[in-house]
């Protein structure tokens, strides 16, 4: 049976980290809120979120239904799916390291989001522009370099070599590292270009992921939603002067 | 061999979620940055963070050293430790649910932090007070109720009953739910009191955790650092009018 991904249908957002893993694995999945059949679409997702018969409800999308199992929170979904999709190592210590990397990437994603929503999560960007400018300044000036520099260090110190983040094989963290690199390039093209000059191994990793046949096919397909200003990585030129 | 926890020595912060799990399990652990022997103290932690021989460095504290294994990121540390400490279920689907709850609690913790640091992570609260007031307004008015309401729903829908969050046994998520309840009561006493009236099962859970013999002993000991205004849950009366 196909597993069902539930996420907002018009943005990459946090759901994209799950989509990339499913796509790379060639998994049989349905991106439910983007479909139009019975029990599909955004309305069906909202109904499911409010369904009192669901014993394990998610706080927010994305969440996944895999037969009887429902799981939400991006990093938890990936930790659950990783072994099934062949995108996670076997040993507990290696799984913990993979989880740690994914959670650090999640922190970067959260900070990228906060650049356009620093003081009011439920208001529009246009209603918090001065605050966003200040938040983005620190993000551009220090935080991006700290996060990407950490990923570069992880690659440089990998005893198996700098090809992948964890050991000698592709994991979902590599796909996620690609995604944040793409997102930063879209949202903060100037700051990202500058920072990425100092992280050649990460740039190589992103290139390697982009060239994976399944990922390349996905990126070229209509299934890949374009970055836009409703997502997490938004390009507001005034935030990347 | 004792496992070593590395975290800032003067605050509860994110390290407290790990401390509570170790304490409840009666684990043999050293809170390294709080000790004064050779290889201990904050300076030793900072040296370890910069040590180029560490192949799996953490982006930030907390991190744990358990023999040869090093793991950082609160939720990853707990996912790693949980099974060893008897604070996690066996089945993969149940582990995923536990992870999902922990990550949702982590989101609440991050939002609590952002109430006093909305626009500049590296500046003081006093340098972003108007922005903090605006961020705190939304946090008090909507977000606390949404997060705590979700935890209440998780308890109410647990097929094994509302005693614990996951199944019929204590897990580290219960300890974490207790911790955020305590933190919110400290930081936002008025808003928390109001919100917690609508979440009686969560209040009962927090009381149940507080009364666990190992937790009660820990809370009464000098090992429990008091909440303070260097931590994540800070009491600024102007943010809880």
User: How much of the polypeptide of chain A forms β-strand, as a percent range?
Assistant: 5-15%
Q: Got a strand count of chain A?
A: 4
SSE ordering of chain A? EHEHEEHHHHHHH
Counting DSSP H or I runs of 4 or more residues, the number of helices of chain A is 9
Task: Detail the topology: elements first, then pairings.
Two copies of one chain form a homodimer.
Chain A: E1 3-6, H1 15-24, E2 29-31, H2 41-50, E3 63-66, E4 69-72, H3 74-85, H4 92-114, H5 129-157, H6 172-187, H7 189-196, H8 200-210, H9 213-220
Task: Give keywords.
homodimer; 241 residues; alpha+beta; Glutaredoxin; Glutathione S-transferase Yfyf (Class Pi), Chain A, domain 2; 4 strands; 53% helix
What does this structure look like?
Two copies of one chain form a homodimer. Chain A is globular. Chain A starts with a strand and ends in a 21-residue tail after the last helix. In chain A, helix 4 (92-114) packs antiparallel against helix 5 (129-157) and helix 6 packs across helix 7. The first copy, chain A, is built from nine helices and four strands. In chain A, strands 2-1-3-4 form a four-stranded mixed beta sheet, with helices on one face. The first copy, chain A, is α+β, with helices and mostly antiparallel strands and 241 residues long. Helices cover 53% and strands 6% of the residues of chain A. The first copy, chain A, has helices spanning 15-24, 41-50, 74-85, 92-114, 129-157, 172-187, 189-196, 200-210, 213-220; strands at residues 3-6, 29-31, 63-66, 69-72. In chain A, strand 1, helix 1 (15-24) and strand 2 form a beta-alpha-beta unit. The model of chain A has no long low-confidence stretch (mean pLDDT 97). The first copy, chain A, has two domains: 3-85, Glutaredoxin (3-Layer(aba) Sandwich), CATH 3.40.30.10; 92-239, Glutathione S-transferase Yfyf (Class Pi), Chain A, domain 2 (Up-down Bundle), CATH 1.20.1050.10. At the A-B interface, strand 4, helix 3, helix 4 and helix 5 of A face strand 4, helix 3, helix 4 and helix 5 of B.
């Amino acid at each position: 049976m196909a597993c069902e991904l539930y996420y907002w249908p018009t943005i990459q957002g946090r759901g994209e980290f799950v989509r990339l893993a499913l796509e790379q694995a060639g998994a049989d999945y349905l991106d439910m809120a983007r479909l139009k059949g019975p029990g599909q679409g955004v309305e069906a997702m909202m109904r499911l979120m409010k369904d009192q018969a669901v014993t394990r409800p998610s706080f927010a999308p994305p969440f996944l239904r895999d037969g009887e199992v429902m799981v939400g929170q991006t990093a938890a979904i990936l930790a659950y799916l990783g072994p099934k999709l062949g995108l996670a190592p076997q040993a507990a210590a290696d799984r913990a390291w993979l989880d740690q990397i994914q959670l650090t990437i999640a922190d970067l994603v959260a900070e990228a989001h906060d650049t356009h929503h620093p003081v009011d999560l439920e208001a529009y960007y246009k209603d918090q522009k001065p605050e966003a400018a200040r938040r983005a300044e620190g993000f551009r000036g220090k935080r991006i370099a700290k996060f990407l520099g950490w990923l570069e260090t992880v690659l440089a110190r990998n005893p198996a070599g700098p090809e992948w983040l964890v050991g000698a094989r592709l994991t979902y963290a590599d796909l996620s590292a690609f995604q944040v690199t793409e997102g930063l390039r879209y949202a903060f093209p100037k700051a990202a270009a500058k920072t990425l000059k100092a992280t050649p191994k990460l740039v190589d990793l992103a290139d390697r992921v982009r060239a994976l046949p399944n990922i390349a096919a996905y990126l070229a397909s209509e299934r890949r939603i374009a970055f836009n200003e409703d997502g997490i990585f938004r390009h507001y030129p005034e935030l990347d002067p």
